[in-house]
């Protein structure tokens, strides 16, 4: 019997720390339901003390998910641990993940605490967390640059205080596979009570080695991997869940452990996270990139045709490619639509919202013969701000482009119910549309990213547009989808403007001043 490798997904916490990737409560519930379908063991749903919104999101996820453990992050202080404990109260199985930095550079410059005070704070927070749940995880932030003797002391003390999981983070993506494996070997042999905890690895990807480092830790005895869908996360991101899971599965001859993951849910999960966060997946990304199995659909390699395994080490269908479910069509009724939304974990607050969503679905079904789950996810992602925060709405759009003519757009939008219109010319119809919108709102924002992806295959697919706007150190991603990509672009721009207006301040757990005890 192989050991079980616990898959701890932190897309909704560490992943959410990526610029503009903040998720609303309802978006988190949708992702959590999909992670549950993927059979992730632990879902880190957020950082409860960061904002009332995040607290509520964790509570909602804890209520919605039954098959995965729901976890909240907490700095090593009483308030954070209490907020985390309250947020996970409704979970079938709940975990508190408390952490404090242990490297000299962090202790001295960020925390301004002595090593003894850090150790005391760690023990105190683990003990307090145990009053809320038996399932407590302790992390030593920036373990990679910490003194190994000190790590041994603090981990031993955390286990003695009741931590069941010990997480060792490469917070800054600095390690290499050999070094990371050696650190785990050393910790596992030197910490006297190491056998009373599950050892966990958490790697960032600054040097592109997050997955390799995580797997080296697994080889050295780690039995939990912390990772994110599509490798989303701070800076260059975290270790990608799909790569770790498929490496362990594909090379089962080499790895002495297995996961519970239902790999056929990998691609649908990747698409959902990309849609909700507005972070597109690069085409050559392992496992979930559009080209990952490209020879199968197009450039038919001679070898693959003769014998698939000449070039393929995994099957596209095994990770969920081509699994998009044809769910609804033009003739589907309101109740079929409602039950599909429920199955996808999409909750609508009122009958009015359901009616409006159903009307949009019917509009889409008129334009597009077959409606897949991805279409419904994209359709519902236009609703990423709460209705009260939705100040601007697109009323109508006319765009004209003709060879030899300068493209033109006329936009009618409402600002809190008041209708406003503008016209503009631009380099292309999208540029003209954005100029027309800007002449109405004069937001003063800086457009940092514009990208278009097709939601499903074929030229009748919806285009899904991401627009990233920045202003005064705030970054937001707006999303819009439509079979007409100019309309999708206008929706995405307006969505970003609405998000920019909705105040959603949250604290980043890893930045800032000393963590008061
Ligand atoms: O990278 C890191 O150190 C973290 C900790 C909070 C676990 O994300
Ligand atoms: Zn991290």
Describe this structure in words.
By secondary structure, this protein is of the alpha/beta class. 37% of the residues lie in helices and 21% in strands. The chain contains 16 helices and 18 strands. It has helices at 25-38, 52-64, 78-87, 104-111, 115-130, 148-161, 177-190, 210-219, 241-250, 266-277, 302-306, 334-343, 351-367, 373-381, 429-441, 485-501; strands at 3-4, 6-9, 42-47, 69-75, 94-101, 136-141, 165-170, 198-203, 224-227, 257-258, 326-329, 370-372, 392-400, 408-415, 418-425, 446-454, 463-471, 474-482. Strands 2-3-4-5-6-7-8-9 form an eight-stranded parallel beta barrel, surrounded by eight helices. Strands 13-14-15 form a three-stranded antiparallel beta sheet. Strands 16-17-18 form a three-stranded antiparallel beta sheet. Strand 3 (42-47), helix 2 (52-64) and strand 4 form a beta-alpha-beta unit. Helix 2 (52-64) runs parallel beside helix 3 (78-87), helix 7 (177-190) packs parallel to helix 8 (210-219) and helix 10 packs parallel to helix 14 (373-381). It is globular. The mean pLDDT is 91. 3-methyl-2-oxobutanoic acid binds at residues 14, 99, 139, 141, 167, 169, 171, 202, 204, 509-510. Zinc ion is lined by residues 14, 169, 171, 202, 204, 234.
Topology:
Elements: E1 3-4, E2 6-9, H1 25-38, E3 42-47, H2 52-64, E4 69-75, H3 78-87, E5 94-101, H4 104-111, H5 115-130, E6 136-141, H6 148-161, E7 165-170, H7 177-190, E8 198-203, H8 210-219, E9 224-227, H9 241-250, E10 257-258, H10 266-277, H11 302-306, E11 326-329, H12 334-343, H13 351-367, E12 370-372, H14 373-381, E13 392-400, E14 408-415, E15 418-425, H15 429-441, E16 446-454, E17 463-471, E18 474-482, H16 485-501
Parallel strand pairs: 1-10, 2-3, 2-9, 3-4, 4-5, 5-6, 6-7, 7-8, 8-9
Antiparallel strand pairs: 11-12, 13-14, 14-15, 16-17, 17-18
Bound molecules: 3-methyl-2-oxobutanoic acid and zinc ion.
Residues 14, 99, 139, 141, 167, 169, 171, 202, 204, 509-510 line the site of 3-methyl-2-oxobutanoic acid.
